[in-house]
């Protein structure tokens, strides 16, 4: 009996010898996979800072769309703060853009434009923002007024679009100028006036002021503003002013040039933004200007410092006495408009001040 048992054990030993190498190979493969996942982590999402453009992935020649695109974080529908002037206008513009750029693989531009609530309004914008080969989601960082009259509005929406495909993920933040009209007491979508420019690679040579602003972690810029700086043409004195102001706190810029109305809204006066001589700051120390309209707030102190340092023009929720032009109106309740120097050859006049607008009762959506 003992001899038979010994014989069986000897017959099984070769099989065990084969199992050990196989187990070792499986363990090594599992370890490599875990290390790869740990290395990738959440950092695989590429937040574009303008020097790397949003990837262009053409639709496959056979018309088929890969379903291997990874998932993206969902974002809540944009809801403006209650303190806003005409929050219903901002809500309409922000949510329409969110719908436009929130879609799955295989979605065509015309389909996305229709889902956004305006085929004619979004038809051209969809050709740029909607790519059938990717999955996309939209997040509204803020919606700032670019202009306001009794019947029309320009809402500059800071739109972050995240995309994902089998090739990876990327993100870009644009300043999109959405135009609205007031009809029968309700704001209606009218058109997209600007998508905030087009991507451009970071040049090898930049002015010292441009380099400082781009590298300053206390200055948050949308990609539209970065592209403006890359292209040149932004007043160096303005950039130096932003860099100096960041010593008092963090700044969030909504727009430099691209994405802003060409003319002061409701007038025929050319905006200083169009010539690269103005910047709009929508948040200070992480809090929107609209929520900091009390005297002595960080936004108020920053506005005072910018004015005292020498500003050709400063629009804000407050009026300061001094040598420069300081003004307030309904449009400039949600941001600081900073212009360091007059535009060469520019027309003298009220500058960026908007036409008088009633800011009383809110209208419905």
Written account of the structure:
The structure is a single chain. The N terminus and C terminus are likely disordered. Among the domains are: 108 residues, Nuclear Transport Factor 2, Chain: A (Roll), CATH 3.10.450; 132 residues, Muramoyl-pentapeptide Carboxypeptidase, domain 2 (2-Layer Sandwich), CATH 3.30.1380. The protein is α+β, with helices and mostly antiparallel strands and 365 residues long. The protein has eight helices and eleven strands. It is globular, with a radius of gyration of 27 Å.
* Beta-strand content bin: 15-25%
SSE string: HHHHEEEEHEHHEEEHEEE
| Structural classification | alpha+beta
Main β-sheet description: 7 strands, mixed
What is the quaternary state of this protein? single chain
Helix content: 25-40%
The shape is globular
How far apart lie the N and C ends? 92 Å
The CATH architecture of the domain at 208-339 comes to: 2-Layer Sandwich
Query: What is the rounded Rg?
Result: 27 Å
Number of strands: 11
**Tally of helical segments:** 8
Task: State the CATH topology of the domain at 208-339.
Answer: Muramoyl-pentapeptide Carboxypeptidase, domain 2
Mean of residue pLDDT values: 83
Determine and state the CATH class of the domain at 208-339.
Alpha Beta
Low-confidence stretches: 1-23, 28-66, 357-365
